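ARCHIVE CARD
CATEGORY: sequence design from structure
SOURCE FIELD: tokenized fold
FIELD CONTENT:
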């Protein structure tokens, strides 16, 4: 894993939370994007070398809606940048981690993503992110 790519924060209202995080970080968000397959709308902020991703549920059955219902607003996941997501998935499975999706899927911010189950990572949902290369 190369670095912390971003920290995902579940929020009830993206518009309200964008204002809060703009004041907190001193910069505006640079992108809002919907990931329909995950039932989520995201907003990204850049803070130094790391990004903050705010996540708002777009339907009541989405993972973010369920998270908010169970735990309320707060840190949802920590994402790590990787060069080769498929190799990293294999390595982590060999190390005994529980991979939630063994085939990477398209996520927000031009990334292929895969998640590790929190039960195998001391209660932290871990996301692996690989930049989708053009061409």
């Amino acid at each position: 894993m190369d670095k912390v790519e971003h920290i995902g924060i579940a929020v009830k209202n993206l518009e309200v939370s964008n204002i809060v995080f703009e004041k907190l970080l001193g910069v505006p968000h640079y992108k809002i994007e919907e990931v329909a397959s995950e039932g989520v709308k995201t907003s990204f902020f850049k803070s130094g070398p790391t990004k903050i991703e705010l996540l708002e549920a777009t339907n009541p059955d989405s993972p973010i809606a369920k998270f908010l219902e169970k735990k309320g607003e707060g840190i949802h996941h920590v994402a790590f940048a990787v060069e080769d997501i498929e190799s990293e998935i294999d390595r982590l499975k060999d190390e005994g981690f529980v991979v939630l999706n063994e085939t990477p899927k398209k996520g927000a911010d031009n990334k292929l993503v895969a998640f590790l189950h929190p039960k195998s990572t001391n209660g932290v949902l871990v996301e692996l992110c690989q930049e989708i290369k053009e061409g």
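CARD ANNOTATION: The chain has three helices and eight strands. Helices lie at 14-25, 63-71, 85-94.
SHELF: design records, drawer C
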